[in-house]
Amino acid sequence: MIETRNLTKRYGDLIAVNNINLNLGEGDVFGFIGPNGSGKTTTMRMIATLLSPDYGEAYVCGKSIYTHPEEIRRLVGFMPDFFGVYDDMTVLEYLEFFASAYRIKGPQRRKVCEEKLELVDMTFKRDAMVNQLSRGQTQRIGLARVLLHEPQVLLLDEPASGLDPRARIEIRNLLKRLGELKKTVIVSSHILPELADVCTRVGMIEKGNLIVDDNVDEVMKKARQRILLYVGVSENTEKAAALLESHDLVSNIEIQKNVMLVTLKNDVKDYTFIPSLLINEGFQLNLFREEEINLETAFMELTKGLVQ
Ligand SMILES: Nc1ncnc2c1ncn2[C@@H]1O[C@H](COP(=O)(O)OP(=O)(O)OP(=O)(O)O)[C@@H](O)[C@H]1O
């Protein structure tokens, strides 16, 4: 649905986007994560045909941005990180205005607008003035607007920025729904954890370079070269620690409040030997858990902090 090949954009000496290769299919929700100025918006604008690359290609549903920009605009719903709304218009009038720009006519127009309002849970505000909505409600109307023409592909630039926690959760639920509707979505954010449970894939961009592109689980695994385990035994913790410390695959052990923090050697992923070893030696295991890693930690591990 979305494919880019060596997509590149320069501004003078600055390489804003450097040889980016993406390949996203139907139903993929791609979390595009990177700090401010890393190249997320520039990438999305090129895919949306709003900005020309200096080098490389991008295809949306098999159509090239160079040869079929008009068709791509019909296939894509692009929600910029900042968009204005007009004064003196109700929510429904606002959506109808855009629906008419998409040439949706007659009774169908009202029907489509009402459907999209329902989808973003904003039916209760259909007659409110658009300039009197909260930021979260404005974002949701913005999303309804880009869904009007039933685009197959959605490019959402920081849809959750500036929202309170409740509104963020609502946006997350909406993103999930879009994936279920088999849309292909790129959603950018510099706030990492909010994307972890909605995305099927994650891309991390830094200084214009896509340094990670994988499914969420793989990203977590890559970030975790060394596994840390919390291990507890009912008595003789010191003895158990000495036993584990002598094992080849264990790199380090610390004891904190009777719990052993066991760090395995680099790239050791299978830690089933630990419970067997302890139980065989007569210890009673009362805690055995791997330290969790979230997307934020993964990002810190995987990036080098290079920001333009
Ligand atoms: N029109 C422009 N002229 C010159 N430089 C630009 C222009 N647009 C963007 N840039 C630069 O390109 C780089 C990438 O910008 P971009 O807006 O794509 O980043 P971003 O990841 O979307 O950032 P943010 O999270 O702040 O929205 C930045 O260093 C930015 O200053």
Automatic annotation (TrEMBL):
PROSITE patterns: ABC_TRANSPORTER_2. It holds the Pfam family ABC_tran. GO terms for molecular function: ATP binding; ATP hydrolysis activity. The keyword Ligase does not apply. Residues 2-232 form the ABC transporter domain. Keywords: ATP-binding, Nucleotide-binding, Transport. The keyword Transport applies. Coiled coil: none annotated. Belongs to the ABC transporter superfamily. This is Putative ABC transporter ATP-binding protein YbhF.
